Amino acid sequence: MEGKGNMVLEAGVNRAYEVLLDPAVLEKCIMGCKKLVLVDDNKYEAELSIGIAAIKGNYSSTIEILDLEEPRHYKLAVKGEGAPGTVEAVGIVDLTPDGESSTLLNYSYEAEVGGKVAMVGQRMLGGVAKLVIQDFFKKLGKELKRMEQSA
Amino acid sequence: MDKVIGKAVTRVEDMRLLTGQGKYIDDIGTPAQTFQAAILRSSSSHANLVSIDTAEAEKVPGVKAVITGEQVKKYLEPFSVGVSAPVHYYPIAVDKVRYVGEPVAVVVAKSRYIAEDAMERIKVKYEALPPVVDIEGSMEEDAPILHENVGSNIANHRTFHYGKVDQAFEEADRIIKHKYLFPKYTATPVETYGIIANYESSENQYTVHANFHGPFVIQAIMAQALKIPSNKLRIIVPKDIGGSYGIKAGTFPYMVLLSVASRIAGCPVKWIEDRQEHLSASSSGTDRVTYIEAAVKNNGKVTGLRMKMIDNVGAYIRAPEPACLYRTHANSTGAYDIPNLHIDAYAIMTNKLPTGLIRGYGGQELYFPLERIMQRVAFELNLDPADVIRENLIKKEQFPYKTASGGMYDSGDYMKGFELALETGKYEEFRKKQEKARKEGKIVGVGLACIVEPSGSNMGYITVALTPEERAKSLPKSGCSEAATVSMDPMGSVNVRISTTPSGQGHETVAAQIVSEVLSIPADKIKVVAELDTSTSAWSIASGSYSSRFASLGSSAVFYAAHKVKEKLMKIASHQMKVSESELELRDGAFYEKNDPTKKYALKRAAGSAHWNPLSLPEGMEPGIYETYYYSVKAAEPPDENDLINSSVTYGFVADLVTVEIDPDTGEVRILDYVTIHDAGKLLNPLIVDGQIFGGLAHGLGGALYEELVYDNKGQLLTGSFMDYLCPTAPEIPNVTIKHIETPSPMTPLGAKGLGEGNTMSAPVAVANAVSDALTPYQIEIDTLPLSPNRIWTLLNQAKQNKNKEVTV
Fold first, then answer.
1. Assembly ipTM
2. Test mutation, B102, B113, B119, B721, chain A, max A CBs within 10 A
3. How sure is the predictor about B809, in pLDDT bands with cuts at 50, 70 and 90?
4. Contact A120 B43 (CB under 8 A)
5. For B506, which of B126, B680, B688, B731 could close a Cys bridge (C-beta 3.0–4.6 Å)?
6. Do B684 and B595 sit in the same domain of this protein?
7. What pLDDT, on a 0 to 100 scale, did the predictor assign at position B807?
């Protein structure tokens, strides 16, 4: 499964980059994220709880941030596993300045699932991925706005 | 007493089933202190098992044991397999996982809820390996290997050469060939697997209640795996099994797994499989690639066949595989007189669920390419498909007919059956309608299929997997034994014990009919006991419910056991009446003197004296009335040095005619009419017969139109629920017309043949032929299944695009 999309962030590119990689922000914005801990340079462990079709459950995940080119580009590698099965995803994020206080974000992703999630969730997966990603950026946008306002 | 055999009597089983008094595995109760099991399964299709951390799971209150492959292995040897490739198959993953759904750990707990919750706390580390799922891909040089010690993914390879194949192809007017892929699909009984296993250390014995239906040769395989004498593995099968269609032969690895779990946990353990487990990890049919070539004369006569069959047995070859390749070996040329045959047969392994019996076993995989190529012969030679079939069918006067590969077709009148199908389905009329409909832009077609339905397997056939030289090193296997016991108690009441482990086919009813007629006692006075207990029942390695063997073999054992009882009672009556046996006849519950009907001796009295007054019996006769008969057939010989094998005992015939209409916008195939003509010899109970045919046809239509276990290229199963794995339900079943002709089998005392699987074998290709016929104007070849709207729509659109391209060129 793969997909891509873009959105406009209401912040300068440096600020946007910084916020995108702020663990506190990530924890808030990732759907079902119960816990996010930095365990190594650019490596996090996370507890995620997501329901796909009838398969609800917890995933212990590692999130690695790779190919960092501050403040324009990075890659996210997510590996999760839990009772409902496994998820592996790679996301690529590119930031382009769009004036002083606005940044264009392009993203693409590839994801694979295994186990129960694949057996019964395959039909739903595209929709769920879209939902999770859109939800993330929506929350991130709000978070950015809030931070900009309070700054 | 009137004839009872052959009457459409209603089923004795139905009263209890319809009033909720059926005794399925989940109804029979459990020993005290029985714990429940849940099985953790691999989410990876191919990986090394790095570690399994069970510590957290063990801490959950109510958990008795968490068991991994390492622990289980101590009590087991790998299951023995019928091929020379050294595949090590355990019922749980040991070093590697090789398919999604493979057991990795067993949690034994107070309740299933606790077991499932604890299961979530087990941490398994996998090291991913590249998977292989494609049949031909598995045979490539650089393909990932599932079993390193085997050295390749090929579990079995044999070639067979019968007749003068090369000559037939040299002398042919045309050679017509194509590659076909039959998909992996399954059987979906409403009742899933269920097991209650109990190890008693005092006796070092395993007692296993399971809805396992044989073949009971697997009892020996299980005992061997458990490293115990076979009388220390007691298997008890409940009298009611909620459907199987073959797949419950596949309970055996779980029976062994739960047995060891009981031993390790120190308590009886119960496990009922859930639906997702069933679809992903029970068993299934094989998917098969067949390259088929026909040597053809211009009049449509096929003089020779070459088939390269590559059967995918999944991650482990396990008993009774590679039987799927060989069960139909004797009838490889179907209903046709084709004396020259070459078969190149492979069983290969990929990262998919291991396979086993399902209804039709091997038949649908065989007849799909065979009947598709027959239609292709007609199309390429511009002949009517009906005429090509006529040209090739075995003629009535050729019976008993010896097939190229050693089969002995016992009886039949194929032409009569086929013509009846054409007539009933109004073939000629439909062709005219079709012409008109095409002008109106409708897509309609008619499909034909003629198949031979083997039943009652010769236990020797599976050794065809070995070369004649390999076979010579071990003892030969033959026969198809089935046992039945008929007893009379002191009051003259009759019990019949059968070992055919029915799963809904009504064996109790038919057994009662047979005994009723032989002993001239009303059927409702006869009690048939269908529970099988390997410690107390009469059974054989061939016993069980598969290969439609009740009608051919089970019924014969019952018939002869009843005759043994009759003979004994007759001797008693003759002794008491002082009249020779030849002057006596049995009717209405008494022996009558033929010449003087006023003189009679009640059956009940004869039975009574065998119990109450044994001293009155003829000299040398044993007291009691308890007779067991083991039935086998001489024609079930082991394969010979030329690999000739009569793989089944009886061979029925099915001729199908199906008409379809395809929606050009959605690609949906609608069946207009389905006609099926059966010749299953003498019918024992026409009501049950038609029920079996309807069921077999529904399963066949599932294979034709809906059902497939779909895996992605990583070996992930994508159809793990009934939302994803589509089964036909009542509204999908079309109008069906069933007709019978009866050419009695000379192989069985009642002339009966098996019949429950015919349409499972024929319907997939009959429908494919109809769809292909409908799509002739678009030049579309149907070479795989199921014919889902998606597939047809795609084919139609491709065809339209190709046409447009042609126009623009």
1. 0.88
2. B721
3. low
4. no
5. B688
6. no
7. 64
